[in-house]
Design brief:
Elements (H helix, E strand, L loop, with lengths): L3 E4 L4 H12 L5 E4 L7 H10 L27 H10 L8 E4 L2 E4 L19 E2 L5 E3 L8
Length: about 140
């Protein structure tokens, strides 16, 4: 299965999402989006395909969101996209793209919606110990 994750290795949610994908036996294409950000068109498509507004795809915590005045409700989607392209830390993560759909995997188990349910064999817990899959690989949450 062709899977791409826009990943930040410093983010626990992103690490958990990557591990869930790998737990399904899938070796995804990993794009560290802070080093190699998506192009504007690709970012807009991922946001749209995930069913999100551009504003919902912006990361506020730990970013210059407030300093850049991005909380201004008058800003257009184009202006917000421009800010995200110029400052990639503003792109919320991780976005995952599969043939089954695109999701902003927050929380990480959202990725299960776009991976084959029968791919999971055995339990899975997040870094913090929260159980996501039971002994049979079935979703708990």
């Amino acid at each position: 299965m062709d899977v791409t994750i826009y990943h930040n290795p410093a983010c626990g949610t992103s690490r958990n999402t990557l591990e869930l994908i790998q737990h399904a036996g899938i070796q995804p294409t990993v794009i560290e989006y802070l080093k190699t950000p998506p192009g504007r068109e690709q970012l807009a498509r991922m946001i749209s395909d995930a069913g999100l507004s551009v504003r919902a795809a912006i990361r506020e915590k730990g970013t210059p969101y407030a300093e850049l005045g991005l909380d201004n409700p008058q800003l257009s989607d184009d202006q917000l996209l421009d800010a995200m392209i110029e400052t990639p830390i503003l792109i919320n993560r991780p976005f995952v793209v599969t043939p089954m759909g695109t999701r902003l995997s927050r929380p990480s188990e959202v990725v299960l919606d776009i991976l084959p349910a029968d791919a999971f064999k055995g339990p899975f817990s997040k870094e913090d110990g929260e159980k996501i899959l039971d002994e049979e690989g079935k979703r708990i949450v």
